[in-house]
Amino acid sequence: MSERHAEADWWVDTYRRAFPRLRSAVSVRDDGWAQRGGVDRVLTLACGRTYTVDEKVRAEDWDDILLEQWSDEERRVPGWVQKSLACDFIAYAYAPSRVCYLLPVVPLQRAWRMHGREWIGLYGQRRAVNPGYVSVSVPVPRSALISAIAEAMILS
Prior knowledge:
The structure is a single chain. This protein has helices at 9-18, 33-36, 105-123, 142-152; strands at residues 22-27, 41-45, 50-58, 64-72, 77-78, 89-94, 99-104, 126-130, 133-141. By secondary structure, the chain is α+β, with helices and mostly antiparallel strands. The chain has a five-stranded mixed β-sheet with strand order 1-2-3-6-7. It has a four-stranded antiparallel β-sheet with strand order 5-4-9-8.
């Protein structure tokens, strides 16, 4: 789904709202270390600072964010919420409304470690059957996830 929307004009508009000093937003689509590490786009600001982003797109406006627990359930390949990623942010967008949540990866993954089992019990799991593998995700309500990310940013 994210590949289908990779060149959508609303991505750059979204990034400009988040980063007013944005100078470029380069799409990374060729296979390589960056793509395997979850980098779909490299953002460069006027000061030279760069951020890397993994783009996720949903076809409908749901009230949850699907956290991919297992990329391949049978082989126990970790999904993006629990594997090491090379990106700074997950840009999680809903195509119809073009609403995007810019989720910082480190606090997001810490929130998963803190609450993942609880979320599985509360919200269940969704399986997606793909050719040759099944991925498993947990639909966490946006408000619960945002609160958990904020909590995960407090180191005590």
